[in-house]
Design goal:
The protein has about 150 residues and is mainly alpha-helical. The chain contains 6 helices and 2 strands; from the N terminus they run αβααβααα. A two-stranded parallel sheet has the order 1-2.
């Protein structure tokens, strides 16, 4: 029964092709239109057919727009949820990059600045007579040679 109820029409148009007969029927049975409407039947004559069809067309278009609006709202909610996830991922990536940059800066400081930095210690080994097969950059130019990349602000 539920399936059958879903498959029924909201209204049925009953076309009476002779305007005079339609007028006589309404005159002889004044409650005919209301009774028919109660049974989901709309009485239509040649004079009212075009207006009735246009009304039905507009109602269908409005119903279709409403269905589209509901679908747009569902899709917009999914899009918004995706955007929230994307922004969260971007914020996490930005934090990870900031931590990595701080770690990189600390490593470069250990390598090339301050007392006892690694480059200075390595050069002091050469001063003690160690003869490496490769040459380190000079301690004075270490900042130019090993400057870490700087991230752009923002």
């Amino acid at each position: 029964d539920h399936w059958l109820a879903q498959r029924t029409l909201d209204l049925v148009l009953l076309f009476v092709p002779i305007e005079g007969a339609f007028a006589d029927a309404l005159r002889n049975a004044p409650g005919l239109s209301e009774e028919a409407l109660g049974k989901r039947v709309v009485l239509v004559s040649p004079a009212t057919l075009l207006a009735t069809l246009k009304t039905v067309h507009h109602v269908w278009r409005q119903e279709q727009r409403n269905r589209h609006a509901e679908e747009i709202a569902r899709r917009a909610a999914r899009l918004y949820d995706k955007l929230v996830g994307f922004v969260t991922d971007l914020e996490q990536a930005q934090s990870a990059l900031q931590r990595a940059e701080a770690d990189l800066q600390r490593a470069f400081r250990k390598l090339s600045s301050g007392r006892g930095n690694l480059l200075a210690q390595a050069e002091s080994l050469r001063d003690l007579g160690v003869e490496p097969s490769k040459q380190l950059p000079a301690v004075d130019s270490a900042d130019e040679v090993v400057d870490p990349p700087q991230s752009s602000p923002g």
